[in-house]
Amino acid sequence: MIKIVKASYVEGYVIELEFSDRKCVAYDFSYLLEKKGSLVQPLRQQEYFQAFFLELGLFVGKMD
Fold this sequence. Notes:
By secondary structure, the protein is mainly β.
């Protein structure tokens, strides 16, 4: 299974992800802002969006 080994905030809603197969991708998550619902609402705040971390090779957002 390919896992995320590193995640770095770039700008706006872009995060660079480095995978265990050594591929690196800058991914723009701004499309999430178009969605509706209580899980998406906090992501509209930059500080909240930037509070991500890796856990067991998975990209995890801060949960309140």
